[in-house]
Design brief:
It contains 5 helices and 16 strands. It is an alpha+beta fold and 310 residues long. The chain is globular. A hairpin with a 2-residue loop joins β6 and β7. It has one domain: Roll (2,3-Dihydroxybiphenyl 1,2-Dioxygenase, domain 1). This is Putative ring-cleaving dioxygenase MhqE. Keywords: Dioxygenase, Oxidoreductase. Its EC number is 1.13.11.-. InterPro entries: Extradiol_RC_dioxygenase, Glyas_Bleomycin-R_OHBP_Dase, Glyas_Fos-R_dOase_dom, VOC_core.
Amino acid sequence: MLTQIRGLHHVTSMAADAQENNAFFTKVLGLRRVKKTVNFDAPDVYHLYYGDETGTPGSVMTYFPFPHIVKGRPGTGAVSETAFAVPEGSLDDWRDRLAGAGVGGIEETRRFGEKRLRFLGPDGEGFALAEAPDDMRAPWPGGPVPVDKGIRGFRGVTMRLRDGVATAELLTFMGYREVAREGALIRLALDGGNGADVIDLEVLPDAQPAREGAGSVHHVAFAVENRAAQADVRKALLEPGAHVTPAIDRDYFWAIYFRTPGGVLFEIATNEPGFDRDEDVAHLGEALKLPDQHAHLRDRLERSLPAIAD
């Protein structure tokens, strides 16, 4: 069993409109945009990162906003819901806030005894706010949401699968353990992690497969401390036959990728070097930052990328 995984690092999804996406996460959810850069493989498309004050691993939601992208279809083989941790007693305020902003799909629920507020993102993606009374992580204090109500980071994600056995075995190998079952849901948790410690598997054998598009989660990233820990994880995954990429420099972390038995793309990302490697913490997410291989495109990209109002 692996011991290097610290919980979630980030979740990356796709969107249709950069400005709408930015407004939703910064103005409605009150997260901080900690980086404005471009897709490594498609530099004409932004890569936007939102999180706490410094983009602490376990707090960062990232997006590729592709103009004219088709709408995704929920289904199996994909993440169906991303949950954020909020303080106990804050859901009434959040319900009013989301409703006042015209957010759709608002629904109060309970899962494994947790009070939750489900809602939809701008592209129909599934989100939830889960009360987490023991979560001591600090929210972004500079946004529009009061600190005593603010998002602390991820609680976890839900993966919708046709068969959860192989994915549960993989997560167990990664250090998670099953802690509860409820209907079609299996909850796995990581002890002593970074706070973003929960993975729920929703097993629906007869559901249709997901179709990637706007509102789809592209991949889920798990955190390790450094490149040495990442190398150990990669070696351990390769031994039973997983197809794992070499380590790739993503400027703010190093990443390896592999496809799970259930179809979800996993990434293992390092906590180093962090989002302040090329910007002061006070000014994170303000300037357009480009990977070295795309630096020569700056003039063209600054003209062609859509403006994002802060």
